[in-house]
Amino acid sequence: MCVFCKIINKELPAKIVYEDELVVAFHDINPQAPIHILIVPKEHIPTVNDLEEKHKELIGHIFLVAKKIAKDMGFAENGYRILINCNKDGGQEIYHIHYHLFAGKPLGKMICE
């Protein structure tokens, strides 16, 4: 079982900021910006390449959750970045799709290298 599945199943602790029936969002343990939240679907989907037609609503939901978190945490107006990595060369380290939500400072061209 992957680390995100363990967080979803409450087998590992996490500082959760949002949860519903489809996703869980929590602070990254190695933040790359002042605010770095991971938004993770509860369904284990290894990579973007594993997404199927049936996931369209889930992916849209994730973006609406990101918008809600940004508004609720007070950084929506200043701006934020949403990033997803796919496979090794794309920077993916945990093979359970997850969206990085960065905020809290001007982010420039790229912050995740």
TrEMBL record:
Domain of life of the native organism: Bacteria
Listed name of the protein: Histidine triad (HIT) protein
Record-linked PROSITE patterns: HIT_2 (PS51084)
SUPFAM superfamilies: HIT-like
Any one GO MF annotation of this record: catalytic activity
Organism in which the protein naturally occurs: Desulfurobacterium thermolithotrophum (strain DSM 11699 / BSA)
Motif Histidine triad motif positions after renumbering to this chain: 96-100
Entry-linked InterPro entries: Histidine_triad_HIT (IPR001310), HIT-like (IPR011146), HIT-like_sf (IPR036265)
HIT domain segment(s): 3-112
Active site (catalytic residues): 98
One Pfam family recorded for the sequence: HIT
